[in-house]
Amino acid sequence: MEKREKIRVRIAPSPTGNLHIGTARTALFNWLFAKKNGGEFILRIEDTDIERSAKEYEDDIIAGLKWLGLDWDGPIYRQSERLGVYEKYLKQLLDAGKAFWCYHTVEELEAEKNAQMKRKEPPRHLCARKTQNAKRKTQNAKRKMKQASSDWRLMKIRTE
Ligand SMILES: [Zn+2]
Questions:
Q1: pLDDT tens per residue across span 90-122
Q2: Residue 129 CA, ligand 1 centroid: distance in Å
């Protein structure tokens, strides 16, 4: 018989407002699924939006889930307590050139998204910083190729 992994589902509400009916509904289905399969139901608070998150909303969400009888397994996880983990992986992505710092403001990003949606385009961020990074990478690659070809010519000269 193949080994089945233990079911582990979660609800991850943002404490940027009171318990939302949609969150309660998702929590109910996940809780039922976990209970039916002998799994775990985890509560993880998505509190990385520091500006909009508030303790009173977190308390309301917790009280609401308790009132609904949707008890969770283990401690309450908070995304903000895992920032060290994210920083480690962020550094890896930055070092590998797979991520870049974007200095656009929330307002600029919102304006860009609205303009794209008005043109019926899929919303995406076209960052000049990303383009600059890509250009730099292309230039570096071209430089390396030139270097490689001149090395090859030198080698050829040497071997002749
Ligand atoms: Zn940007």
A1: 999 989 988 888 888 989 999 999 999 999 999
A2: 6
